[in-house]
Amino acid sequence: MAYLIKGVSILGAAPTDLFIKDGVIAAPFEGAEVVDAGGLVALPGLVDVHTHLREPGREDAETVETGSRAAALGGYTAVCAMANTSPVADTAGVVEQVWRLGREAGLVDVQPIGAVTVGLAGKQMAELGAMASSAANVRIFSDDGFCVADPKLMRRALEYVKAFDGVIAQHAEEPRLTEGAQMHEGEVSTRLGLTGWPAVAEEAIIARDVLLAEHVGSRLHVCHVSTAGSVEVLRQAKARGVRVTAEVTPHHLLLTDELAAGYDPVFKVNPPLRTRKDVEALRQALLDGVIDVVATDHAPHAVQDKECEWAHARPGMLGLETALPIVLSIYGPQWELIADRMSRAPARIAGLAGHGGDLTVGSPANLTLVDPSARRVVDPSELASRSRNTPYAGMTLPGRIVATFLRGEATVLDGKAVK
Ligand SMILES: NC(=O)N[C@@H](CC(=O)O)C(=O)O
Ligand SMILES: [Zn+2]
């Protein structure tokens, strides 16, 4: 298909016409399908470096296809699929399977993340080289869900991925400090009588890992940063020139531990929701660039794993279909900031050429069109995800994703997935 996106504002600039043909942004031509984009803003397609798609193994919670559809509807053109599937994505075979399922769904580019250790068990390094040289071309490795707690193993993994410019994405949690943890350790956990996950359990691992990354001269990425103290560790590491990048989730930018008071497990997540002070520090860190990207940590869970007692519920919340509206609700129409933190920087970290582009003639047509003036009430029953565990149910959020294009093909039009 060839499209003329008429009267669109690219990153908030004066309205213009955008032509799409043969998968790229094209020079003006006749005969295109016209998309009326008056009042809409074009952004480079969003890129998520932290998505849980649950396939293989928990297809009742999400599949590569349903998660891809949720992503496209959220304005994404690429997502990185976390390795904590069943079986774990710790071999070339599994990452190639996920990659192939992504291609078949054809709604976003699904870039598999490989596990750092066999079975996420933290004991033995997985075959990182085989995953890197597989068809899935893996560059990000993570045991997410678990921390690579053994410092020697972490050091070896950081050294190993240097050979192919890979990166280790760490779920920073010192396990001895979070045994039995149910929420953030602080005033609220004391009041509720729930065992707390102290901020230092995250900060201590980040401090250790930036020193390890510095020592071996390798790349570290820190998943879902959640505390003000973590921001300070990262700020100092970056000032010294350590090759570290970091992500923050929409929920850690918006929600606080006070929400645990109702014991509704929809608010249970790892790392836990923190305090207002942490939220403020994370917001500022994203502005400053100390935190590089917004990542969803989209974590779909089946009803029986979420609608139960708090202590038994799985941690995690949906994110793909609400990420951009949440970010817009916090930062307003700062389109350059949004394009950088949600598209360009994540594409760079994941090594996804063709994503995070500048929408100039000749560049790949990976983009999304947003109506910033529309407001929508989040209705869990309307989500494309197979799961329903959104913490934003009933909230009115700004910004409607009207269309998304992957290599020039519409994946979303009129706010609906095309397949
Ligand atoms: N974030 C979560 O609370 N859960 C994630 C794992 C993770 O990202 O740590 C999941 O896989 O459900
Ligand atoms: Zn995690």
TrEMBL record:
| Residues of the signal peptide | none
What does the entry list as the binding residues for Zn(2+) 2?
144, 171, 224
Spell out the reaction equation it catalyses.
(S)-dihydroorotate + H2O = N-carbamoyl-L-aspartate + H(+)
**Keyword Hydrolase attributed:** yes
- Look up the coiled coil feature and give its residue ranges: none
| Keyword ATP-binding listed | no
Binding site residues for Zn(2+) 1: 50, 52, 144, 297
The entry's free-text remark on the cofactor is: Binds 2 Zn(2+) ions per subunit.
- Annotated residues for binding of substrate: 52-54, 84, 270, 301, 315-316
Instruction: Report keywords, A-Z.
Output: Hydrolase, Metal-binding, Pyrimidine biosynthesis, Zinc
User: What does UniProt list as catalytic?
Assistant: 297
Single annotated GO MF = zinc ion binding
Biological process (GO) annotations? 'de novo' UMP biosynthetic process; purine nucleobase catabolic process
Q: Which domain of life is it from?
A: Bacteria
Q: In which pathway does it act?
A: Pyrimidine metabolism; UMP biosynthesis via de novo pathway; (S)-dihydroorotate from bicarbonate: step 3/3
EC no. given is 3.5.2.3
Q: Which InterPro entries match?
A: DHOase (IPR004722), DHOase/Allantoinase_Hydrolase (IPR050138), DHOase_cat (IPR024403), Dihydroorotase_CS (IPR002195), Metal-dep_hydrolase_composite (IPR011059), Metal_Hydrolase (IPR032466)
Q: Which cofactor does it need?
A: Zn(2+)
* Cited function: Catalyzes the reversible cyclization of carbamoyl aspartate to dihydroorotate.
Q: Which family does it belong to?
A: Belongs to the metallo-dependent hydrolases superfamily. DHOase family. Class I DHOase subfamily.
Protein name, as recorded: Dihydroorotase
Give the species: Actinoplanes xinjiangensis
